[in-house]
Amino acid sequence: MAACCSGGGGLIVALALCFVAASPVEAVCVEVDSVDRVVVNNTIKLTCISCRKRQEQDAFVDVTWTFQPDGENTTAVDILVMKRNGDDVEFTNLQFGSSRMQFVYSEDYQEVSLNINDTKLEDKGTYRCHIRRVPVMPSVHKPPEFFVTKTIHLEVVPEPFMDITAKVSEVMMYFMIVASTVLLIFTLITCYMKVKQADKDKHSKVTDLLVIAPVNKENCATEQAEEELKSSS
């Protein structure tokens, strides 16, 4: 009994050691392209993700979002500035402001995206997400800096847009429905005409038979009368 207990305790200790030794599972970072088209008055998320390499250490992150309207002689203006890992976040443009924009970021600041609510036609333009990352290196007087820029050309459309492939598919679907309906109607009409013609031919044959029958009967009567005359003479 004691041996059994000892064996069970060893198994529990081994499992506990394995659990402690196992490294925690880290979230996987994947860089994806941002949506670049939105219907006016809707909300859009401008995605900005910059994945750190596995060997990189913790870092201080600064983020600046800029916006440049479409057209000639336009300049880029800051619309959001974040310093030192979120210690200071400022919306710097009255066109957007904190009421229309939300800063969407992950805990490690690998994602620093931007939500724009109630989009306007004048929101169309080029958005850039500038990321400055400085690794935390206490023993280094001037650690290296890493810069990443993501560019998004946003299009704001007044009506819901539809992909050209979807439009072609929709047109082809309606065409096939109309063509099938026309073919069905043509087939029904053709069948009806054939049945009607066959019925007409049948009636014609019956009429001909009715006309021929009395004639044959008269011929038979005439022949019988002639034979009787010959026999009497």
Automatic annotation (TrEMBL):
Q: Would the keyword Disulfide bond be found if you checked this record's keyword annotation? A: yes
Q: Where are the transmembrane segments?
A: 171-195
Instruction: Tell me the domain of life.
Output: Eukaryota
Q: Does the keyword Transmembrane apply?
A: yes
How does the record classify its membrane topology? Single-pass type I membrane protein
The entry's keywords: Cell membrane, Disulfide bond, Glycoprotein, Immunoglobulin domain, Ion channel, Ion transport, Membrane, Signal, Sodium, Sodium channel, Sodium transport, Transmembrane, Transmembrane helix, Transport, Voltage-gated channel
- What is the designated name of this protein? Sodium channel regulatory subunit beta-3
| Designated gene of the protein | LOC116948183
